[in-house]
Amino acid sequence: MSSAPKKTVKKTTKKAVKAVKKKPQAPGADELKFMIDSAFERRTMLTPDEVEGSTRPTVERVISGLEQGEFRVAEPDGKGGWKVNEWLKKAVLLYFRVNDMQVVEADPAPFWDKVPARFEGYGEADFRKLGARVVPGAIARRGAYIGKDVVLMPSFVNIGAHVGEGTMVDTWATVGSCAQIGKHCHLSGGAGIGGVLEPLQASPTIIEDHCFIGARSEVVEGFVVGHHSVIGMGVFLGQSTRVYNRATGEISYGYVPPYSVVVSGQLPAKDGSHSLYCAVIVKQVDAKTMAKTSINELLRGLAD
Questions:
Q1: Binding site feature residues
Q2: Domain that holds residue 72
Q3: Is there a catalytic annotation at residue 195?
Q4: Catalytic residue among 67, 170, 208, 209
Q5: CATH code, domain carrying 276
Q6: Do 241 and 173 reside in the same domain of the chain?
Q7: 271 is catalytic
Q8: Does the residue 106 lie in any domain?
């Protein structure tokens, strides 16, 4: 008697499928902008839970982006002008609202402030990665971008400022909040570059690439110094400063065009009774001349 054929049963093994947890994507610039705009609109009504839960982390993320050069309060618009990113100014203002006063450790004595030091906790590896030289006595606040090969002499750089690579910030020079300093500039001893936080739509003070700002000069109120310009010692430039072009006789405000050499001067009243301060564009030179000529030579013989 033949036995019935055995049925072979195929066992199927179920492979355990591991659920891959995706990390939540970090918010992009557009999302950060929306969150900052919303928080700023409600800044007087933010609850402690909102501050701790979303506002402070968002503001900290943006401030870190400013430090790393990911964001800039103002940036070239590609048409020879500048675009102001108002939401980044709002983030800077919110930083003061969401942070409490704290001890900022320093030698020989600590500070009491809402904004930590830019290089707080830095060691040798951090400074080597940064690639800038920070001389004793230099103070930079959190949220300031310091480019590669920058030299900070005993000076002050405020929150939101941008100092481009290769720039020298000389002794007692100050760079105000959100001020934009280009690449390979020289801010001479005691020069002051003013900060502009409010009004939000106002452009910050801007020094474009390859500029020289003379000792004890002041550039404030969102004034723009065009690239490769030389500003002589003791020149004051603000939105109300008359800028007289000696070659054309034109008077302008708020801007010095590229390759300008500027010194302080005076313009007489129409009735001749008095004269008032102005800045004088004594010459404009091309890139070739600028490259071959020292700063002192450019500033000599200007009374001719």
A1: 133, 170
A2: 29-98
A3: yes
A4: 170
A5: 2.160.10.10
A6: yes
A7: no
A8: no
What mean pLDDT, rounded, does the chain reach? 90
Of 67, 176, 218, 226, the catalytic one is: 218
Nearby residues of 141 by Cβ (< 8 Å), 6 or more positions away: 115, 116, 117, 118, 157, 158, 159
- In single-letter form, the type of residue at position 68 comes to Q
* C-alpha distances in Å from residue 177, one per residue of 72, 98, 137, 144, 227: 12, 18, 19, 8, 21
Bridge partners of 207?
Answer: 181, 225
Domain assignment present for 293: no
Same domain? For 93 and 129 the reply is no
Per-residue pLDDT tens digits for 170-212? 999 999 999 999 999 999 999 999 998 888 878 899 999 999 9
Can you say how many angstroms the Cα of residue 141 is from the centroid of all Cα atoms in its chain? 12
In the annotated binding site for substrate, the residues are 133, 170
Q: Determine phi and psi for 162, rounding to 5 degrees.
A: -130, 120
pTM, entire model? 0.87
Q: What is the DSSP letter of 80?
A: S
Is 72 within a domain? yes
Pairwise CA distance, residues 152 & 124, whole Å: 17
Q: For position 45, which CATH number holds?
A: 1.10.166.10
Answer yes or no: do 48 and 186 share one domain.
Answer: no
Looking at the 3D structure of the chain, how many domains does it have? 2
Residues 93 and 180 in one domain: no
pLDDT of 5: 53
Alpha helices for the chain (secondary structure H): 29-41, 48-50, 56-68, 86-98, 124-130, 287-292, 295-299
d(CA 259, CA 32): 38
User: Does residue 213 lie within any of the structural domains?
Assistant: yes
- The active-site residue out of 65, 176, 195, 214 is 195
| pLDDT tens figures, 101-139 | 999 988 889 999 999 999 999 999 999 999 999 999 999
End residue of a domain, out of 50, 69, 98 = 98
**Residue 55's closest CA among 99, 115, 104, 118?**
99
